[in-house]
Amino acid sequence: MMIKTLALSSLALGSVAAFTATPASRNDNLVLTTSTPRAMVAFSPDDRPESSTTTSTTSELPPLSTSTEPPPQKPSRIMSQALPFLQCPVVLQENLDMAGNVGFDPLNLAQNTEQLWNYREAEIKHARLAMLAAVGWPASELWDRAVASQFGMDPLLDDTGRAPSLLNGGLGRVSPIWWGFCIGLCAAIDMYGLAKARRGDPQYRPGMLGFDPLNLYPADQQGQARVELAEIKHGRLAMVTVVSYSIEEWVTKIALVDETPGLFVPLTEAVEQLEQIEMLAFE
Q1: HSE-up (13 A, CA, CB side) for residue 69
Q2: What is d(CA 228, CA 231) in angstroms, rounded to the nearest whole number?
Q3: Residue ranges in the chain assigned as alpha helix (H)
Q4: Residue 80 to residues 86, 93, 101, 252, Cα–Cα distance (Å)
Q5: Which helix (H) or strand (E) covers residue 51, if one does?
Q6: How far is the C-alpha of 21 from the C-alpha of 41, rounded, in Å?
Q7: What is the C-alpha R_g of the chain?
Q8: Cα dist from 67 to 72, 149, 203, whole Å
Q9: Helix (H, G, I), strand (E, B) or coil at 54
Q10: Which of the four pLDDT bands, split at 50, 70 and 90, describes residue 205?
Q11: What are phi and psi of 32, to 5 degrees?
Q12: Three-class DSSP category at 221
């Protein structure tokens, strides 16, 4: 009886030990060892091993990338609106909001934004002066003699009625006092513009002198952009027009208002002047 009791105790202890896990190793690998009790081996097939070991190893995965920066992209190629077969210069690409910017700088004169703004300052000054000259040139040929007679002065027009210019000549007949007044006024305006540009006002744009007595400058940004674009377009056209005035009168030897009278005098007078010109041409 005692022998049977000891045998049963040994069998129970072996069964408990069969399902006891061994401690995990230091490298975080979980090792589970199962030992088959001898009592179970007696009733198992002969080809089954006495013990089986199952090992599960946790593999180390590389850390996931947490970077949110997009991959670098190549700069987009922007072509010039004025010259579609050429690429728009980089400086003009960086200032696309500038009025009248159509990517025209084939000689790459503007190397940076500061130079570009300096060129725009010069352009807007010449544009405004050209717009005044485009109106003043034919006006002087129409009314110079009448105004000069009212003040008892000699007219500045030549014998053919052409206004003084570099190609026509006659600039020497202009009073030095008038030249001094014009140079002084232009210098004062230029100094005021330079001082205003150097104040560091972030709202400043080239040519913004604050002169708007009739309050024509809109308050909204869309309206401001429209007015600035119209000004620079008219100014560029005026610069080309004044050059064409000078070349036209120098080549034809005829005053501008006499060559195109339909634009400056009533139609009846224009017809009479054209008839007189034709009669002179056939004589």
Answers
A1: 4
A2: 5
A3: 2-18, 38-41, 90-93, 113-150, 176-197, 221-252, 256-259, 267-282
A4: 6, 9, 9, 37
A5: strand 51-56
A6: 20
A7: 47
A8: 13, 83, 37
A9: strand
A10: confident
A11: -115, 115
A12: helix
Which carries the bigger pLDDT value, residue 204 or residue 166?
Answer: 166
Place of tokens 């195109």: 260
Torsion from C-alpha of 237, 242, 246, 247, nearest 10 degrees: -10
Report the alpha-carbon distance of residue 259 to residue 238 in Å, rounded.
Answer: 19
d(CA 184, CA 192): 12
Give 153's DSSP letter.
Answer: -
Q: Coil, strand, or helix at residue 271?
A: helix
What DSSP designation does 219 have? S
Q: Are 121 and 207 spatial neighbours (Cβ–Cβ below 8 Å)?
A: yes
**Separation between Cα atoms, residue 95 and residue 112, nearest integer Å:** 10
> In degrees rounded to 5, what are phi and psi of residue 18?
-65, -30
> Do residues 184 and 196 touch, judged by C-beta distance below 8 A?
no
pLDDT at 61 over 70: no
Look at 13 and 217; give whichever has higher pLDDT: 217
DSSP three-state, residue 165: strand
Q: How far apart are alpha carbons 273 and 151 in whole angstroms?
A: 28
Residue 175 and residue 155 in contact, taking contact as beta carbons nearer than 8 Å: no
Give which of 245, 41, 251 is closest to 163, Cα–Cα: 245
Are the beta carbons of 142 and 257 closer than 8 angstroms? yes
Selection from 116, 117, 124 nearest residue 88 by Cα:
116
